[in-house]
Amino acid sequence: MPERDSYPPGTPSWVEVGTSDIDGAVTFYEGLFGWNVAESQPDTGGYRLAMLRDRPVAGISPLMSEGQPVAWSTYVATDDADGAAEKAKANGGQVLAGPMDVMELGRMVFFMDPAGAALGAWQANQFAGAGLVNEPGSFTWNELATRDIDASHAFYSAVLPWTYEEQDFGGMKYTLWKVGDQMVAGGMPMGDEFPAEVPSYWAVYFAVDDADATAQRATELGGTVIRQPSDIPDVGRFAVLADPQGAVFSILKASQPAA
Q1: Number of domains forming the structure of the chain
Q2: Secondary structure of residue 201 in the 3-state scheme
Q3: Where does the pLDDT of residue 133 fall: very low under 50, low under 70, confident under 90, or very high at 90 and above?
Q4: Are 11 and 179 in contact (CB under 8 A)?
Q5: In 125-197, beta strands by DSSP E
Q6: Which domain holds residue 22?
């Protein structure tokens, strides 16, 4: 269901963009997705909350450290952020931030897998995560693009309560990460279509009503279409975009309603 008040451990629960221009990002995403972005509070360090239908759907954050890239990030629900950090380190990963409390909202850790993709884990207290998913303007899928898919299978299965299965997808093996029988995320190897300088990363997909119209609107708002809208058989129509500050994200008009 689209409205959410809690997330089982292992389920992506939140997305946020770290940006070099908060006001510019707010203008772009409000115009693209119809978000209402609240003003930052004095104790949040400039962090702003994007709302849709009066529910939180994403965060917009200033860059917190020198060298931090402008990028979208995914957080996975956990009941033990400290344990996730220890498991990440024990399995060849690197802890980038935390574990630490975020006021009374929850406890977080941000880590990097052995191939260089960064992912967060969120232990909820007062804030569960996105209150709306799988509807236009909210996130609908999270996908790992990696240069070492075999290593990712071992790492994430050890760090998170995930199992995986591989499916043939247009001649490519696509990984489905699962919690129990529920698909929660995807993964794919990075082929020659990815420039050598692009590191492994977690991609965020937002649901839209019309991929072509959204891509056109993104350019009107100063963004860039990195991959033109195209069809994915049995999935839907998608495109890859970048906001004016360079944060890359994907949009998807699903062929079937998401659960």
Answers
A1: 1
A2: strand
A3: very high
A4: yes
A5: 139-146, 163-169, 172-179, 182-189
A6: 1-259
Output the pLDDT for position 41: 79
Q: For the CA atoms of the chain, what is the radius of gyration?
A: 17
Confidence of residue 23 (pLDDT cuts 50, 70, 90): very high
**Helices (DSSP H) in the chain: which residue ranges?**
22-33, 81-90, 149-159, 211-220
The residue type found at 125 is N
**End-to-end Cα distance, the chain:** 6
Which CATH number characterizes residue 46's domain?
3.10.180.10
Does residue 42 or residue 157 have the better pLDDT?
157
Whole-number mean pLDDT of the chain? 94
Q: What is the pLDDT of residue 1?
A: 54
Amino acid occupying residue 65: S
How many angstroms separate the CA atoms of 256 and 178, rounded?
Answer: 19
Q: Which two tokens stand for residue 222?
A: 């100063």
| Identity of the residue numbered 80 | D
Please state, in angstroms and rounded to a whole number, the distance separating the CA atoms of residues 116 and 118.
Answer: 6
Instruction: Specify the pTM.
Output: 0.95
